[in-house]
Design goal:
Layout (H helix, E strand, L loop, with lengths): L1 H41 L3 E2 L5 E3 L2 E3 L1 H6 L3 H20 L2 H38 L7 H30 L10 H37 L1
Antiparallel strand pairs: 1-2, 2-3
Helix pairs in contact: 1-4, 4-5, 5-6
Length: 215
């Protein structure tokens, strides 16, 4: 009964992981294409002589935008617009493109790694649902590979944020996510539980074969 439940729930997790993996793959392609187009359009933004923002003959007056903002938020929105104007003025088209494209590249890289994690989770639980035992040689390796991918995501996120904020000259404090590292360590430890179970099954099968030979 317990094994049937394990197989049933593992099959559900496998199917959900496969669906998510397909959806996020499509979303990643969209982000990569749309983000690059947005970066290209953003690089064409300029300031005219009146301090208005222009792009492809379209003029946006920031003061008109501020008028529609609630009074308590006007000063902070004004600071953001001034920062945005300075950023547009001080950077060339290629610099603006590369700066925004950095976001796109990092986001795409993290999403690709997340797809790889879901792909491995799908196969891990598929193995558990179709095999006679969850303690097969492949499963602990898949768990460790998932841990490695999660660790890479954390490192990319941490270093990527540092790089982006230094690129935009913004002061920020970005701490390493120790809780996620702790979760990764737990998953990594569980991989040895699967490996131990695999070795026990091998010993049991050898003993079983020995008993059969004696008979």
């Amino acid at each position: 009964m317990t094994q049937n439940k394990l197989k049933k729930y593992s099959e559900i997790i496998s199917i959900i992981s496969q669906v998510l993996w397909i959806i996020i793959t499509i979303f990643t392609i969209f982000i990569a294409i749309f983000g690059t187009i947005t970066s290209f359009i953003f690089s064409r933004i300029e300031l005219d002589n009146n301090g208005d923002i222009t792009i492809y003959n379209i003029t946006i007056n920031p003061n008109e935008i501020i008028n529609y903002i609630p009074e308590e938020s006007k000063s902070s929105v004004d600071d953001i617009i001034n920062y945005f104007k300075t950023f547009i003025n001080e950077n060339t088209k290629s610099q603006k493109f590369l700066m925004l494209e950095t976001f796109v590249i990092l986001a795409t890289a993290e999403l690709i790694l997340f797809i790889m994690i879901l792909y491995n989770i799908h196969h891990l639980f598929k193995n558990i649902s179709i095999k006679d035992t969850p303690f097969i040689k492949e499963n602990p390796h898949k768990l460790r590979y998932i841990c490695l991918l999660l660790l890479i995501i954390i490192i990319i996120d941490y270093l990527g944020n540092k790089f982006i904020y230094s690129l935009y000259n913004i002061n920020f404090s970005n701490g390493f996510n120790l809780f996620i590292v702790y979760i990764i360590f737990i998953i990594y430890t569980l991989s040895y539980l699967f490996e131990y179970g695999h070795h026990l099954e091998l010993k049991y099968n050898k003993l079983k074969e020995g008993d059969k030979n004696e008979k």
